[in-house]
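Colleagues,

For the teaching module next term, I've prepared a clean inverse folding example: a structure given as tokens, and then the sequence designed for it. I'd like students to try predicting residues themselves before seeing the answer, so please don't circulate the second half yet.
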């Protein structure tokens, strides 16, 4: 799964990476919780071009037919094995795919002693992790609107470093796969399988971090600093 995000890249870097017309404002965030705004890149809503645009989405997908946005508490991740067929994600997969860039993310490792230990995961080359996502538009009867997004996940056997932390991981895209993911028509079964099942060649660094990441509202650079397992109070 993917339950917390970190983004420290500036807007110019992201605009250059995706050839965006506008530079997004991207404040550094060290502990983005589900339900909070998350930056995503999507196809432009303009019908006459194929450009990309950045937008902020509520993390937790709310399908257009949902009676309440409360469904988002269960939909911040979408299993890649079923996302194309489940009603909650099916239309978003067909028409509204996006990419969620992240400097890294937190995952919790179950050591068998005490509570799971949070770990920070990032690419060793310090490049952004490009997570495959889906987005939706929901309108409340009172006229308010929500644009929301989810992150696709897959079996972590695609990468041995991440597999040591958790059995699931985000579906990660390489730059050469972006055109397929952003295409007007959804990837067919063969191309989809090549995206979600491809072994990840990038190397990743992982290390234990403070359990302060468990608390909403904690958001500072110290959260991603390495700590000794013995410093984690819940292990005693």
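(Answer key — instructors only)
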């Amino acid at each position: 799964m993917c339950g917390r995000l970190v983004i420290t890249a500036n807007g110019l870097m992201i605009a250059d990476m995706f050839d965006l017309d506008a530079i997004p404002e991207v404040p550094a965030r060290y502990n983005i919780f589900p339900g909070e705004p998350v930056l995503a890149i999507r196809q432009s809503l303009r019908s006459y071009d194929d450009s990309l645009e950045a937008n902020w989405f509520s993390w937790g997908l709310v399908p257009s037919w949902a009676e309440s946005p409360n469904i988002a508490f269960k939909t911040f991740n979408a299993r890649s094995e079923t996302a194309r067929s489940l009603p909650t994600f099916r239309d978003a997969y067909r028409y509204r795919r996006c990419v969620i860039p992240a400097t890294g993310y937190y995952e919790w490792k179950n050591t068998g002693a005490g509570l799971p230990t949070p770990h920070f995961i990032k690419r060793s080359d310090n490049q952004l992790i490009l997570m495959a996502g889906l987005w939706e538009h929901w309108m409340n009867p009172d006229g308010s609107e929500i644009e929301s997004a989810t992150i696709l996940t897959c079996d972590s056997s695609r990468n041995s470093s991440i597999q040591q932390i958790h059995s699931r991981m985000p579906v990660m895209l390489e730059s050469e796969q972006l055109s397929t993911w952003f295409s007007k028509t959804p990837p067919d079964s063969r191309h989809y399988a090549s995206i979600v099942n491809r072994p990840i060649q990038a190397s990743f660094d992982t290390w234990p971090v403070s359990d302060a990441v468990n608390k909403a509202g904690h958001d500072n650079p110290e959260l991603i600093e390495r700590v000794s397992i013995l410093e984690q109070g819940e292990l005693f």
